[in-house]
Amino acid sequence: MKVLVATEKPFAAAAVNGIKAEVEAAGNELVLLEKYTEKAQLLDAVKDADAMIIRSDKVDAEVLDAAKQLKIVVRAGAGYDNIDLAAATAHQVVAENTPGQNSNAVAELVFGMLVMAVRGFYNGKSGSELFGKKLGILAFGNVGRNVARIAKGFGMDVYAYDAFCPAEVIEQAGVHAVANQDALFETCDVVSLHIPATPETKQSINYALVNKLKKGGVLVNTARKEVINEPELLKLMAEREDLKYVTDIMPEADAEFRKFEGRYFSTPKKMGAQTAEANINAGIAAAKQINAFFKDGCTKFQVNK
Ligand code: 3PG
């Protein structure tokens, strides 16, 4: 069987070698499509693939139509908003993710960007410290939990809200649970976003919510650009010169945000999971999940049930 790795943003070489070893150990063939620039290349590559490993690559109805042999697509990573789940189900394709495999890498980048923000983007002037500051974590999944762990090392006072995680679970992790996201923004100096992009969360980070942040507040986004209401955040940053926004997902309105020099930073390309360790963990997990699916019909990580 053919296992296609289709990654517009490639895995580290060590991860590709590990995936290849897993795929071949199961008697299958690995086909690589890396750094593709046109959708036509993906449509061509999926034609005879039985399984596919992707990252943020878009798998929509057109891709699924072209993938006549495809039985399973695994998103090597957490967020699967790039897969049209209804279309996958209609095509009888199992869609999976690899939860937790790249979450430490994303959590570490939160602090890379956060230190930079509170130190004035290294402008030579006096900045501030994270020690003793209140950090709010919006969504307490795998990334949020790693952020909490690292924040404690910085001596931060950590708060979290998650609509789907009971307060007791948050408290057991030594984190203050708050009642809702308004309370999180009202309480904290810094809020780090870890919500997925869903119909409910899209554009939910808006003027009214971010305006609740304390003076000198910092918003950190390593989640998805779609959760931000960009026109409203732009309006707020124009009104509040104390606010900073650092993001690992370049906004649509990047050029407009750039006007807030010294208060805004975006990575040019999503870098959160772009470490050798995360690539190896997520890539090999994806290959193992495909092997388990073909061997035993295992669909433990299916997201289009
Ligand atoms: C994820 O959802 O796992 C992260 O956003 C990483 O995405 P990437 O594989 O495109 O870097």
UniProtKB/TrEMBL annotation:
<keyword id="KW-0560">Oxidoreductase</keyword>
<dbReference type="Pfam" id="PF00389">
    <property type="entry name" value="2-Hacid_dh"/>
</dbReference>
<dbReference type="InterPro" id="IPR006140">
    <property type="entry name" value="D-isomer_DH_NAD-bd"/>
</dbReference>
<keyword id="KW-0520">NAD</keyword>
<comment type="similarity">
    <text>Belongs to the D-isomer specific 2-hydroxyacid dehydrogenase family.</text>
</comment>
<protein>
    <submittedName>
        <fullName>3-phosphoglycerate dehydrogenase</fullName>
    </submittedName>
</protein>
<dbReference type="Pfam" id="PF02826">
    <property type="entry name" value="2-Hacid_dh_C"/>
</dbReference>
<dbReference type="InterPro" id="IPR029752">
    <property type="entry name" value="D-isomer_DH_CS1"/>
</dbReference>
<feature type="domain" description="D-isomer specific 2-hydroxyacid dehydrogenase NAD-binding">
    <location>
        <begin position="124"/>
        <end position="253"/>
    </location>
</feature>
<dbReference type="InterPro" id="IPR006139">
    <property type="entry name" value="D-isomer_2_OHA_DH_cat_dom"/>
</dbReference>
<dbReference type="InterPro" id="IPR036291">
    <property type="entry name" value="NAD(P)-bd_dom_sf"/>
</dbReference>
<feature type="domain" description="D-isomer specific 2-hydroxyacid dehydrogenase catalytic">
    <location>
        <begin position="29"/>
        <end position="304"/>
    </location>
</feature>
